[in-house]
Amino acid sequence: MDYAAKVSLFAFLSAMTLWITTKIPAGYVAVSLIAFIIFMNAGEPQLLYQSFSEEVVWLMLGAFVIGESIKESGLAERFSQAILYRAKSKHSLIRGFTLALGLTALFIPSTSGRAALSMPIIKQLGTHFSSKEKEFLAILAPVIILMSTSATLIGAGSHLIGIGLLESTTDQSISFMQWLIWGVPFTIVITFITMYIVKLTLWPKHITSDSSDVLSIKNAHKDTSIKKIEKKTIIILVGLIIGWVTENIHGYDIAFVTMIGALLFMIPRYGVISWKQGIKAISWNLLLFVAAATALGKVLVDTGVVGWMEEEVMHYLHLFAGASEWTIVLLLSIVTVTSHLYITSHTTRAIVFIPSLILFGQSIGVELDTIVFLSLIGMNYCVTFPVSSKALLLYYEEGDSTYDAKNLLKISLVLMPIYVLVILLFYFTYWKWTGLSL
Fold this sequence. Notes:
Blueprint: H1 3-21, H2 26-39, H3 46-49, H4 55-73, H5 75-86, H6 90-103, H7 111-126, H8 131-147, H9 157-169, H10 176-202, H11 211-218, H12 228-245, H13 247-250, H14 254-265, H15 275-281, H16 284-302, H17 305-317, H18 325-338, H19 346-364, H20 368-379, H21 390-395, H22 405-433
C-alpha cells in the first residue's frame, strides 16, 4: 500500500474504534477523520465537499420526508394498530412485526426503502414502550431487514450485479424462481434466529410482557375509517414502490425515485405535509455522519486498500484448491460474511469479490452458480457496525429511535458465527437436495 492508502486505512480503523468505544458524536468523528485524511495530504478537499453527493445521502433525505408523511397522515399509527390488534403480548407483537418486515423483502427491492417505511411505524410503536425497549426495536428493525434480504433476487442490488457478472463470464445463471426456492427457507430460519438473538441480548430482563400492556394500547384507538389524507399517502407509496421495483425499466436509481416521492408528499396545497415540515423532519446530524462515513468507506476503494485486501484474501484462497467440499464452503462463507468489515458498500463487495471468486471457482473446477449464490448470501451479512449498511445508518443516532453501536457489535459477535453455521447446514441439507452443489 502507498502513503495515501495507509493514511486512509488508519483513519477508517480509528473511526470504527471511536464509534464503538467513546461517546464522541459519530458525525463529529467521521467529519474529523475525513479532514485528517485531507490535512495529511492523503486526499483532496473534494473528498469532503463531494461526500454530500453520495446516493445514500439523498436516499436518506427523501426517506426522512416520506417517514414524516406516513406518520402525519396517520398511516403509521394504523399499521402499528393492525400489528397490535393481532398481538396477545409484547412478545407476539415482536414476532408479528418481524414477519411483516421479512415479507416486505418480496416486493420492495431496497433495504434502505424498507428501513424508511419501517421507521415511522417503529416510532409509533415506540410511544408505548420504555427507552430500553425502544432501543431493542431500533436495532431489531434494520437487522431483520438485512437478514431477510436473501429471500429474493431483487432483495439487494448486489444480487443482480452478481448474477450479471456470472452471466457475462459463463453460460450459467440463477433464475428468479430458483432463487426463491433456495432463498426463502434460509431467510425464514435466519430471520427468526436473529429475532431471538436480538431479544435475548437486548430485551430488558426486568420488564414483564403480559397481555394487559397490549390490551391497553389496543383500546386507545378504535377509529377504523380511512381518511382522505391516508388514501393520498397510500397512492403515493404504491407509486413509490412501483418506481423502486421497476428501476431496471425506467433507469432512475432508488435515491432519485425516493426524492421524487418526497417532493410529491410536499406539493403545496395538494401534498401530505408542507415543505417546512419535511425539512424539519430531516436529521441533519445523521446526514452529516452518513455523508462522511460513506466517504471514509469510498476512499478505501479509491486509494487501493480494498484491492490490496482482495489480493491477499484470494492468494490464501488459492492455497485450498485441493481442499474438501466442506472446507471450500466454510472458507467461502467466512470470507464473504466478514467482507463487510473492510468493504462497507454492499454493491462494492459484489463488484470486488464476485469476479475473483468466479475465477477461483473456475480454477478448482466447481459449479460457478453455486459459488456466486453462496457468496451473495454471505455478503448479505452486514450487521457489525452502523456504517456496514444504509438500513443501520438510517436508525443510528436518530432521535428516540436509536441504538448504541456497542450493542450492535455485541449482537454481531453472536450472530456472525451462527450465520456461517446456518449457511453450512443449509448447503449440506436443503440446498443439496434442491440441486445446489459444488
